[in-house]
Design a protein that fits this description.
By secondary structure, the protein is mostly helical. α3 packs across α4 and α9 crosses α10.
Length: 155
């Protein structure tokens, strides 16, 4: 058995040009990866910036997880959030206060009760109240009601 010792050195190889050419930007995760590489940031650097683990950032990039409002706010210090959150669930979460303002205005302009508004959105009255008490929409609820959110121009 060979007991040769190796002195391994870490070598950073920049493959971002090659990788960026082949990346799409159809999802938040794909846009995050593309932006991270364009900025020359590693997954550990982004994880440190967001106070999460490397596997969480990797999960975002692979579309396994969706970021919280807090993580999105932390990303905004380095990333173009109009690009990252251009559509879908992350757009709603990042702009949730704006969504609530539009929702309130929609309820008022249409003389709706909270119960009527909840019914039109196909959610419970309790969930409707939860949003106005600081809760954020879940991805499963978003997927269930996104047609209604767009139908009533709430995002």
């Amino acid at each position: 058995m060979d007991n040769t010792k190796f002195n391994a050195k870490s070598v950073r190889v920049d493959c971002s040009e090659f990788i960026e050419e082949n990346l799409t930007d159809n999802t938040f995760g794909e846009r995050l990866r593309k932006s991270r590489l364009e900025l020359g940031l590693s997954i550990p650097e982004v994880a440190d910036m967001c106070n999460v683990t490397k596997s969480i950032i990797s999960g975002y990039e692979c579309n396994r997880f969706n970021p919280t409002k807090e993580v999105l706010n932390l990303l905004s210090s380095k990333f173009d959030m109009d690009y990252l959150c251009m559509e879908g669930y992350t757009k709603l979460v990042y702009n949730f206060d704006e969504f609530l303002d539009k929702l309130s205005l929609w309820v008022k302009e249409n003389n709706l009760t909270k119960e009527d508004a909840a019914s039109k959105l196909d959610i419970s009255r309790g969930l409707f109240r939860f949003w106005f008490n600081g809760g954020v929409i879940s991805i499963s609820t978003y997927n269930k009601i996104k047609f209604n959110i767009y139908k009533y121009n709430l995002i």
